[in-house]
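A note from the maintainers: we've had questions about how concatenated examples are separated. There is no special marker in the raw files; a new sequence line simply starts the next protein. For clarity in this README we add a label.
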Amino acid sequence: MLAGFFPVSAQQGTAEFPRLEADPRGYEYAAEFREKGNDWQIMADTSLWASGWTGAGGDFSVPAAIRAAAEELRSSPTLPRDARARGEFILGFMHKRFLKTYSERQTRLDILVETGRYNCVSSAVLYVILAEAAGLDTRGVITKDHAFVAVDTGDELIDVETTNEYGFDPGTRREFQDRFGRTTGFAYVPPRNYRERGDLTVLELISLIFTNRIAGLESQRQYAEAVGLALDRAALLSGSGSPAEPPFFTDPRKDVLDRVFNYGASLIQSGKEREALEWAAAARYRFTDESRWEDFTFTALNNILVKIIRAGDTAGARSLLEANAGQVNSANYRTLEGMVLDAELTAMASDAGRDGNSGPVLAAIDAAEVRSAIPAARASELRTFVILKDGERIAAAEGWAGAAAYLETMIGQYGSNPRLSNALRIFRDNRAADLHNAFAELYNRRDYEAARDAARRALEEFPGHRQLTQDLNMAEQALRNQR
C-alpha cells in the first residue's frame, strides 16, 4: 500500500521541536547512488536506513540475511541465464525464502526480513535488491495507491507484482488474476493504462518506505517524528535530478513543507498556539512558503488573542499583538488589531455604563470608525450600547424627561437606528405616563384647577397626546360642573 517541517534541533523558548536537519546518511546514500548506480548492497543499506533499522535485534542480522540470499541467488546453479526466466525465478525464490503474510501497512524492509510480513513497497524493494544482485535491470512503477517493479530485459519491460508469487508478467497469468485482488485489495494497472501509472528510479522506489512511514506516523498523530522522516527522504532524493511527476509520486520539497505545517497545525489544534508561533519563528525562513506561513501565523496569533480577550485581559492582548507585529502582513495585522480594539472598546463601554463617564469611550469609538479600525456597523452597535446605558443612568438620576432629551441629542449627533428610536419612544411614553400620573393625583384630590394647569403643561411638552388631551378635557369639564 502507498500512503497518500525540516526538524528543529535546538530548543526554542520553552518548546522542544523536531530536528531541522536531515540525517547526513541521506546525502551520503544519494551520492553513492550517483557514483555507483544500482549497486545492490548500497540499495540494501539505503533501504534498511529508510526503514528505521537500528541494528538491534539480538543474534539475527538483517543485513546478513539479505546478503546471504543475494549470494545464494548469484551462485545458484538453477538461476536461469535468460533474463525473463531469471526475473520469474527470483520472484519465486523471494516468496519461498522471505514472504509469508501480506500486511497492507508493513512497508519496512527489516521487518519483512525478520517476520515475513510485507506490503507492496517492502516486497518491491526486496525484489529489486535481489534482482540487481542477480544481474537484472529494474525500476519501480507507481499507481494511485500501489507500487510494483518492472524488469528491463533489453527487449521488453516486464511488470512484476511482487506481492503475489504469480506476479511476474501478471497480465498473462490467470493464477495472479484469481489471487491478487483478494490478497491486496488493489487492481493491477497494465502498461496500456499508462495515464494511471508512472515510472520510478530504484532510489525513488526506496523513498516510498519513507512516504508510508510518514503516513503511518501522522495517522497516529506523531507529527514531530514525521518531520524528520520527510527531511531524510528529501536528502535521499537530493541528487536524483527531476523527481517522478505527481500525482502519484510526492515531490520531496512539498512533502517536507506539508510535514512542517502539519506539525504546526497539531500544536494549534492542541491549544499550544504560543509554541506554534515559536515553531514558525524557527522554521519559517528555512522552509519558505510565505502564503502558508502567513495563514499559519495569523491563525495561531488569532487563537491566542481570543483566549486572552475571553479571559478579560485586553491589555495583555494588546501587548502580545504589538510584540508580534512583524509576524503577519499589514492586512492581517489590521484584522487582529480590529479584534483587540473591539475588545478594548467593549470593556470601555461596559465601564462607562457603570460610572457614567461615556465621553472618552464615545470619542474612542468615533476615532476607530474614522480610521476604519472597526466596521461602521460595529461602531454603531458599541455607540448605541453606551448611549442607552447613559440614557438609563440619566433616567434613574434625573427622570425620563432628561433621558429623552439626552437621546434626542445623541440621535441628532449620530443618527438614529431601531434600538435608539425604540428607546426614545419608551422614554417619552414613560415621561408622558409620569405627567398623566401627576395629573391624576391632582384630579383625584379634586384640585381641578391645578389638574387643568398640569394637563396644559403636559400638552406643551407632548402636543396632541391622546391621553393628556383627555386629561385636560376631564379637568375642564370638572371645573364647568363646579360653576
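[label: protein 2]
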Amino acid sequence: MSNHQRNLTDEMIPLMANAGGVAGINFAPAFLAEDITSKDSLVSDMVRHIKHFVKVGGIECVGMGSDFDGIGGNLEVKDASMMQMIFEALRKEGFSEDQIEKIAYTNVLRVIKETL
C-alpha cells in the first residue's frame, strides 16, 4: 500500500469498520501508488487498495471516494462516466455483483441512512 501519511493504517481500518464506518478510496496518485511521488492514478492500484481494505476490514467498510474535483495527475479514471473500469476490474478479481454494489454505493448509502 502507499505509505502516505493521510492513508488509514491497518490498525485504523478494523476500528472504523467495527464502528460501522466506510472509507472512500481516493483516486489521488499519491494515495494509491506504491511510490507516493507518482503522478499516475491506475485502476490496478485502486483495486489493490480495495482488496486490502476488504481483507483487513471486510466488504462493508470500503466505498468510492474519487475526489475528482480536487486531484491532478494522470488519471486512468478521469470522471464518473469511467467508474465501470474499476467495477470490471473487480469482477475479474472475483468480486461478486453484490460486493461490487456495496463498494460502488450501498455501503455509503447505509451510513447516510443511519446518520440522518
